[in-house]
Fold this sequence. Notes:
Elements: E1 11-19, E2 27-29, E3 45-49, E4 52-59, E5 65-70, E6 75-81, H1 87-93, E7 94-95, E8 99-108, E9 111-118, E10 122-131
Parallel strand pairs: 3-7
Antiparallel strand pairs: 1-4, 1-10, 2-5, 3-4, 5-6, 6-9, 8-9
Amino acid sequence: MKFRRLVSGALLLGVLLAPSEAQTPRNDAAMPSSGFARVEPESSRIEDFGSDLHVELTLTRPVPWQVYTLDDPRRVVLDFSEIALSPDAFRQVLNSDIVSDLRFYRVRKGWSRLVLDLDRPMRIETAGLATGTAQGA
């Protein structure tokens, strides 16, 4: 199942996870960046989509990122370069029974991590980004 949505003036980062018994290898993409991006909660979501999990984040500008799953404990990890720390923004968009908890923290200079704790094994079905044309994003 593929999804793409153009957001004018912002980056849309989308990840769809589906139930799975196996761990998925790392899937990453990168774009050049400068300055810190912010999450726009009003147009972002982390929600159940049937038995799948849909993570759609709208950022103020493109940033390098990567996504992967881990087991024991089950979780999906999204790493971002140069994104402003805003745990409240992620909590505002969380609407999922699959995600039992989330954490957002800095992992090293210039890189932040969003960790979603999962209640079941999941695999990455689709991961991608789309950029709008306004404001250089």
